[in-house]
Amino acid sequence: MDSESLIAQQLLSDPRVAQATELLSAALTEHSAKLSARGPDAELAEPYQKWLEVFAQLRGNALFFPYLGSGVGQGALVELADGSVKYDMITGIGVHAMGHANPELVRELVPAVLADTVMQGNLQQNSESLLLSKHLVTLANQKGASLDHCFLTSSGAMANENAFKILFQHKAGSSRILAFENAFAGRTHLTGQVTDRPKNRVGQPLTVPVDYVPFYDAARPEESTQRTLQTVENLVRRYPDAHSGFIMELVQGEGGYYSAPREFFVQLCQRLRGLEVPIFFDEIQTFGRTHAPFAFQMLELDEFADVVTIGKMSQICATFFRKELNPKPGLLSQTFTSSTTAIVAARWILRKMIDGDYYGPDGRIAEIHQRFVARFEAIHAQAPDRISGPWGIGGMVAFTPLDGSPEAAKKVLHALYEAGVIAFVAGAGPARVRFLPPFLSLTDDEIESVCDIVERVLLSDALDQ
User: Fold this and answer.
1) What is the pTM of this model?
2) How far apart are CA 357 and CA 48, in angstroms?
3) Which residue ranges form the domains of the chain, and what is each CATH number?
4) Do you find a cis peptide bond into 390, omega within 30 degrees of 0?
5) Inter-axis angle of helices 262-274 and 221-238, nearest 10
6) How many CB atoms are closer than 10 A to CB 56?
7) What gap in Å lies between CA 289 and CA 366, rounded to an integer?
8) Angle, CA of 224, 230 and 234, to the nearest 5°
9) Angstrom distance (rounded) from CA 196 to CA 213
10) What are the tens digits of pLDDT across the range 6-52?
């Protein structure tokens, strides 16, 4: 596809493109290097507040944080339009794993900016989509899975929507979905029904019944496992041949960063196989962030993967499925696959993931996690009423603040934001603070700086007021 007979290749080989790329990279590197964590510029406070108020009016509700980015950053640092510079530990809820303004990625994106269209889609896809799909399928199957197909899409919710459509068509006549309690599948009409959060669907008609199954309880491992298995048996017996599949997050994201040992999932998946219920691994948030590229690979569940979805850090989302589940033409289609820049960025991210030393028990992701854990445990030892575990897994880092109430979590989140660290909430009962740090660029110094701020905030007397 790189034949010199193609004008596209002649364009990319033009020395002016190389020169422009070097200039852009140099300018970005030079100006990003000026960034350091700091508070807002007093002169920008009033106009910034007005912008926030206008935006809130336009969108109908205020932003969770008063965050309007300037468009400049460096790694974990991001500049806001009020002049402040903060440590971004939530990265768009896991999207910006490469960090802000990564100069290496910017160099990769120049050809995408020069491409003939902004978006690729149903009728017109460029070679980048083919190469990305091939790379993804190879990666998904590298430890023995049989995921023959990969359908690209522009959002995690749509990847999950497509998965459900595949499952419902595969099991003709099925009308129900199995899911774990505290599941989060998205915010479309269907995925919002699967998401175990009633407040997210107030006023929405319920059209697809979802049967919730209790998740693993680390305090009662054997009892909770048997309870899960028995609940599945009871539901399938009550609604024979009615379940299209079981969607499961192997690490519950919005549910609070809880996971379970391999033995729990093996027993559950084997039971589902015996009941002829397809297995759907939702890896929108876990993809790339555990001790293997996929969480199902980390847990060695490859043989059970019927449908898998990825998103967030991959930039472009995807639904993988076995050939036996390949749907009839017309079921999956969309105007937009995604932007050419997102597709090119996805290929670069995959290369970084695989070529870098990120995975395994001694990989960079495990190292990053342990550095956070060491600092959190030190704070816990000093003030056990201020922070407690568990601490999450891999690049999904979490802690329970204060008494774990929603009010306490919100107070800590906003105190961290004001102090210069952007995080987010997860879970309920307890509510937890979660990080999804930019692990592809995060430095040890940045981890220490972030943890210094976390320590100051958690030990501050202001939280008692």
Assistant:
1) 0.96
2) 41
3) 42-102+360-464 (3.90.1150.10), 113-355 (3.40.640.10)
4) yes
5) 20
6) 13
7) 9
8) 145
9) 11
10) 999 999 999 999 999 999 999 999 999 999 999 999 999 999 999 99
